[in-house]
Amino acid sequence: MTSINASPTGNEMSKLLSKLLTLRPLMLQGRKCTITTAPQDDTARRASDPNPNANPACTKPRARPSGSAHPNRLQTVNYKRHHVGSETSCDLLYPSPATMATTDDTNGTAQGQKLWEHHDPKSTQMWEFLQRVNERQQKSFETYGELYRWSIENIEVSWAEIWEYCGIRASMPYKTVVSDSKTMFPRPAWFAEARLNFAENLLYPTQKVDEDAPAVIAATETTRETVSWKVLRERVRECQAGMLAMELKAGDRVAGYVANHTNALVAMLAATSLGAIWTAVSPDTGVTAVLDRMVQIEPVLLFTDNAVMYNGKTHPVLPKVKEIVGQLPTLKATIVFETAPSQDPTIPGVDKVHTYSAFTSPKSSSPAKLHFEQLSPDHPIYILYSSGTTGAPKCIVHGAIGTLLQHKKEHILQSDIRPGMVGSWEGAVSKTMVALRVGSWPTISLTFGRTGCVLPLY
């Protein structure tokens, strides 16, 4: 539930909502907080962190005294918190119109005000899920609030229902939902004994999709591209074949120094299809900042753009790549996307450099079909990073089932996304929200792919 106590004008309300969405981690201090246990988006806490709970986002918020003022005129905001291993992710609950009240600062008079209401709630997948829970669990819920309360009080049952309703593709079933539903750290194991693959769930969602329908719509300053499900799968197969020729294996790290485009998405899907772990940094990042991150993870492959276009100008990337590669001794190869055709894709003085076209060219050993390594649900898929403002950036590892199930839930149930819909997100590959978009395109991925929705890249 979200309560906003203020009396803003329309323009002020827009500003307040913008702050809620963009500054929510900062706003946790001094706010009430509902804590829930949920499948984790990451699979490893930072072993080097002597006090992982020292992060302000992981400390218990202090309740603001009743009636106290706040500089943003927001007095009480209720959050739910999802434990994600090395960090705590805070998401706004969907607001209940009955509790959305404003207060006139001059006289303290409460005025009811709805921000938004679905025109036909019973047509949504959330309502269908509620009815399913009622039937299977012998309940009689009629509101979202009742369903939400049940879900946080019945962790194992609720996440099992979400797994089945939202559709997780697995080659082996799970035996238990969670090893310990009452403990957040040390983190419990989720869906033990199941075997699945993250990329397979994105490329072949359980929801029926037309293979000739658009899967990705990509736009840059100079190009426009629409990629069907069939073509996307084939491009991932070709990239996977190049990785297999490099003897990439599960657990290896694959890095991208890339912009947000289809080839970057393809490389991420190919890497995770084999059980490798993907990480990405935007190509406008400086050499030192890139090395602060990549030296820690010891990548075996590096994908990079040869240049990026911004504001009508072409900016070469490979001079920086030459410096980066020299400090990454674990690299087996550097693969260059010919993103700017007018720019030279070679890196003089650097060995083991391949153009992407050569990397994906047919080989006698190339498999005819995509292979999906079947792995534990907690197997890592992405490495993101903290900002680095208080020292070296910290690695944040995200696991398959947390990423899949959280976003299936958010897209299917919370957002009512259905096959054929088009979802749009603009951002750099190194941004967390972009990563969440595709399943995580971490910082880049196909989050909408899990639902059969079209994913635009900008």
Task: Please explain how this structure is put together.
- This protein is of the alpha/beta class.
- The protein is built from 13 helices and 21 strands.
- The strands form eight sheets. It has a five-stranded parallel sheet with strand order 13-12-14-17-18, sandwiched between helices. A three-stranded mixed sheet has the order 1-2-3, with no helix packed on it.
- The radius of gyration is 23 Å and the shape is globular.
- The relative contact order is 0.13.
- The N terminus is likely disordered.
In short:
This protein is of the alpha/beta class and 458 residues long.
Question: What are the main properties of this structure?
Answer:
29% helix, globular, 21 strands, alpha/beta, 3-stranded mixed β-sheet
The tally of strands reads 21
Q: What is the molecular shape?
A: globular
Taking the sheet with the most strands, its summary is: 5 strands, parallel
Summarize model confidence as the mean pLDDT: 78
- Strand percent estimate: 15-25%
As a whole number of angstroms, the C-alpha radius of gyration is: 23 Å
